[in-house]
Structures are given as C-alpha cells and as structure tokens.
Write a structure and sequence with these properties.
Shape: globular
Radius of gyration: 20 Å
Structural class: alpha/beta
CATH superfamily of the largest domain: Glycogen Phosphorylase B
Largest sheet: 6 strands, parallel
Distance between the termini: 37 Å
Order of helices and strands: HHEHEHEHEHHEHEHEHEHEHEHHH
Number of strands: 10
CATH class of the largest domain: Alpha Beta
Number of domains: 2
Helix content: 25-40%
Length: 336
C-alpha cells in the first residue's frame, strides 16, 4: 500500500489496510508512507512492515533513499501494490522495485463525489463498504497515554482542545494569512467564551504555532489553560486528543486524528473539498462548520493559488463555534 502524504491523508487509508488484512489474513500488508506520518502507523496491527520516504519529491535518479527503498521493496516479492498516489514518480519507484502488478486510480477511477476513504477502499478491491467500515485506526501506546496525562492531567474537566495551526507556514507568515487559517484574534475570542462557559483549554500545535498560542495564552488565566505545542510526538498528540472532552481544529491532520481516536470534534472548514477529505468518524460526533462563498472549494482549481483573502474562513464566527460546542457538550462534560 503506497500513500506518501500528510497525517490526514495517511489515516484515511487505514480502513483499506484493515479491509485487506481481514480479507487476506495470511498475507502481509506493508505500507509506504511519509516520514512525518510514520508514527501514526507504527502500532497498526494490520501492517506487517512499514517503509518511510523522507524526500518524496526528489527524482529517482538523484535519490539514494529511493534507490535503497526500491531494493528493500524488491526483496519482498510482492504479489500486488496498491498505489494511492497519482504522481508518476511513485509508479516509477514501484517499477524500479520490480513490482509488475500495480493497482490504483488508473485501474479504479477516483470518484470526486465520494470521500477519499471510500475511494481508497474501492482501489483496494472493496467497492461496497458500510459507514462503520470507514473508521480510521490510530492505536496509541501506554507510554503515549502516560505522557498525555502528565501534560494535561492537572486540568479539570470539561477539557477542550484547540488546534490553531496546520503544519509548516510555507509562503504565509502567519495563521491569518493562510488559506485554512482562522486568525489568532478569533481563537482568543473563542477561548475567552469557552472559559466563561466553564471549560479548561489545551492548545495543541507545532513549534511554528507557539508564537500564536502564546499570544492567546498570555491573555488567559494561567490555571485554566496549557499548551502542548512543540512538545509532543505524533502519537503523544493523539493520546492528548483522546483524553479531551472535545477538540476544535481548523482543517488539518490533528482533526483527522481526533476522528480516529474518537474525540468529539468541531472542524472549522474553508477552502478544501468537503465531499472528499472532511474528517469522518462512525464512532464519535463530528461537526463541520462551513459557510462557503461562491468561490469555495478552491482546492484543485487555479483559484487556490490566486486567493488573497480566505473569506471562507472569515465567515466562521467565534459565536458559531461556541454554539456548536454547547450543542455537543452540555454541562457536565458528556457529549450529546
């Protein structure tokens, strides 16, 4: 199975991995993923061998890593490889690995009206699946649970997590300027509303999100909010999210992680393709907040690169998020 993507991209393949292993219990199901997403799959009981690709965009001829990987894959003598990527470089890598039977979206066309999870299941040979079979898998270890408890166990419930960032900043220097971003002033107003409502807050994120998070935290009571930003490995972050009463996030990998571990989830949705990549969970509530303008979704279109103002995110107001939280998490911390 080949899906060399980000956190959410990788998690959305896990139902297909589970389906393959259940259909072929005596077969080994191996997975080639990105280095950054490998931690999500290391404890997956349906995966026999996990291969990582660190520099996915480097051409094969110039990549010692891909040469080495091709030799490793060739030694496994695979019957079939399921290629869930469209870039030719991955097909080339599998050919260099001596894999003659490659199945993917050339053989099973991607249906843009269906969720990626469903498309991945189709490509893996499972055209008919039930919603409960779409649950993503994200096991965490006891040591991950213990680390999460050390970080957030001192806060009383209800505990609400807030994920304000979504990975490397790229060309945008701040959260407000990024297409999926929701400005830190919005997050501050929401945080104050949640504190008034009675919640305690846990901010999650990467090293690059720390400035935005500290801007917010400086204006909150120190005993009612904490941050794990920059201090968690990927499975530790999953364990933190699992311990929350509810998780609020922009459209990013940790939102999919919340859906995978069963944390009630509110997602602030902007320019991405809702039908294909929204977080889904058959086992826990997911609320997607979206007020799409006529130009949405711009992902997959030239508009994405020319957008100068993410009005799709500006249309989501803090009071709308608070209303969703109150609907999902009444007094007492029990999810409705």
């Amino acid at each position: 199975m080949v899906r060399v993507g980000a956190l959410g991209d990788t998690l959305m393949v896990t139902p297909a991995v589970r389906a393959l292993k259940r259909a072929h219990p005596n077969a080994d199901v191996d997975f080639l993923c990105s280095e950054s997403a490998a931690g999500l799959l290391e404890l997956n009981p349906h995966i026999a061998n996990l291969y990582r690709l660190r520099r996915r965009n480097l051409p094969y001829l110039l990549s010692c890593e891909k040469h080495r990987l091709a030799r490793q894959l060739n030694a496994r003598n695979y019957d079939v490889a399921f290629l869930l990527e469209t870039a030719p470089r991955y097909h080339q890598l599998l050919l260099h690995a001596g894999i003659s039977r490659i199945a993917g979206f050339n053989e099973t066309a991607f249906d843009p009206s269906k969720h990626c999870i469903v498309n991945y299941l189709h490509a893996a040979g499972f055209p008919d699946s039930l919603p409960e079979e779409h649950q993503m898998d994200l096991p965490v270890a006891p040591e991950d649970e213990a680390a999460a408890e050390r970080m957030i166990g001192h806060l009383r419930r209800p505990r609400i997590g807030i994920h304000a960032g979504y990975g490397p900043r790229g060309k945008k220097r701040n959260q407000t300027g990024r297409l999926k971003g929701w400005g830190r002033d919005n997050f501050l107003r929401l945080s104050l509303m949640l504190l008034d409502w009675g919640a305690n807050l846990i901010f999650t994120g990467s090293d690059e999100d720390q400035n935005d998070i500290e801007f917010i935290r400086r204006q909150l009571p120190a005993d009612r909010a904490c941050t794990t930003a920059g201090n968690t490995r990927v499975r530790e972050l999953a364990a933190v999210i699992k311990k929350l009463d509810l998780f609020i996030s922009v459209d990013t990998g940790p939102a999919h992680m919340a859906a995978a571990v069963g944390a009630p989830l509110v997602v602030l949705w902007g320019p991405a393709i809702y039908e294909q990549v929204r977080p889904v969970s058959p086992s826990s509530p997911v609320r997607i907040l979206r007020v799409p303008p006529p130009c949405a979704p711009c992902y997959g279109t030239p508009r994405k690169d020319t957008c100068r103002r993410n009005i799709c995110m500006e249309n989501i107001l803090p009071k709308m998020v608070l209303e969703a939280v109150r609907d999902m998490l009444p007094a007492g911390g029990k999810v409705s």
